[in-house]
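Sequence only, no structure available. Ideas?
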Amino acid sequence: MTVIRQVLMLLFALFISALMDSGDAGGENRPASPSDFATPATGTSLPVFPETMTDDDGRSVRMTHAAMRIISLSPNITELIFAAGAGKKLVGVSRHSNYPDAAKSIPDIGDSFSLDLERIVALQPDLLLAWHSGKARADIEKLERLGLTVFTTEAVTLADVPRLLRTIGRLAGTSGSAERTAKTYEEALQQIENSYSNRPKVSVFQLIWHQPLMTVNNQHLISDVIRVCGGTNVFALSSSLTPVVSGENLLAADPDAIISSVLLEQEESAPAEVKAFLRQFSQLSAVRNNNIFFVHPDLIQRQTTRVLQGTRLVCEQLERVRSRRKIDRLTDPDFRTPPP
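Reply:
I predicted one. Tokens follow.
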């Protein structure tokens, strides 16, 4: 019996030793992996590092591991990082990163006009995410000369937002969370597009600043918002991303609707002030028919998941224009339907 007891004790000791070596006893000795941050969605594969990815500047960026210390160089990217499930990995954010609330407590590293390079280096990031339209090429090269890894993103259409979410998920090792958010976004976008994109066309002037008059061309995300809502951007073919237009240009375009995303120092009074400013263009159809609307810039100018909130508002506003057309058609025998 003594020999049997000794054999059993030896087998038990070997079992415990094997269990500890496998890392299953509490998991304390197991190295961190991407799965610690998010469970992959069905059909989603985790990246295998090292991995080389191409950013929206067409540059090849090599990642040796999932990013653990991330700095965002624009507010819209800050939002996307949180939406992709990687908010806890942010160690620095661009000034004006005000959403979600958790972003407000993360160290500020400056903005597009003045980056605090010393602070950026001190934060020891293993990845900086930049906005293509918001950062000059020289700034990115300066960061790279400091030995930092920079990945540039850009959303031109609403469909680009889920692509950016998935990209950030791969870079940060949070693919599961990013995939879930991306799919929810895509489903909501499809519903909006099905409801509005084939409605009667409404010509739209998007006002992003009023002194001077500034708008967007068809390479800007806002132009795609207008398209999804069944509208047409009257300055879509301008050569500049955010062209300055003259009063004469605006009068010649004569849009059915004007959507302002101008935000003044006194936020509450901005819609009324801009509306009063536009009354000098009383010949415009949009002004004459009171088709002047406002959408907060955070909901229409930022390349984030919240742009769907702004899109719904724009769609509702263009529906008002269509409803007023019906009333005019019923009350005015000489009313002519605008061309498609």
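Residues 14 and 109 are 53 Å apart (CA to CA).
Hope that gets you unstuck.
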